[in-house]
Amino acid sequence: MSSDLFRLAATFLFALTASLPAAAKITCCDVDGKRTCGDPPPPQCVTRAKIIYDKGGTAKEIEAPLSPEQRAAREAEAARQKEEAQRAAEQERKDRALLGSYTNAAEIDKALERALADLDKSYEQTKGRLEAALKRREKLAAEKEFYQKKPLPAELDKQIKDNERDIAALEQALKEREARVTELRARFAADKERFLQLTGRK
Fold this sequence. Notes:
elongated, four-stranded antiparallel sheet, 3 domains, about 200 residues, alpha+beta, 5 helices, 4 strands
């Protein structure tokens, strides 16, 4: 083709595309191995993967619509990946904190000893508070004896109820001590094992 004819063809194509509406788009898809295109989109392309060409020739690929089962599976997979990423990020945070807190495994053992000592101290303090609450119960019971045949003063009634609540809470705290000891030992054992894994030490 001579240069004059080439310029003429190029000018014609430019004029043709320029005359298309601004929103004109060509949709193409494969139907039984054959390319099918059109504007508006051919009906055969509705349920298939397709490529849409805009006026400037830019192509945009669109996948075929998902079935309800495919959509549910994709959403489940996305949720699983997100959860895994969150777990990995949380584990990374814990690992950084662990390595920043200890320089060797012996320090983890000492930290456990301190935690257990603090727990024992708290236990003894709770026992002391419970003993005081039980003594107060006896005192309040003695005061209540004076009102067997007449209404109990509101303030005394409140003190008795508050005292009973305190006793119940303190007794529960003492019962939970063993569970707390078990939880502490398990947590520090897990920290020690992870620390050894991260540092490659035995």
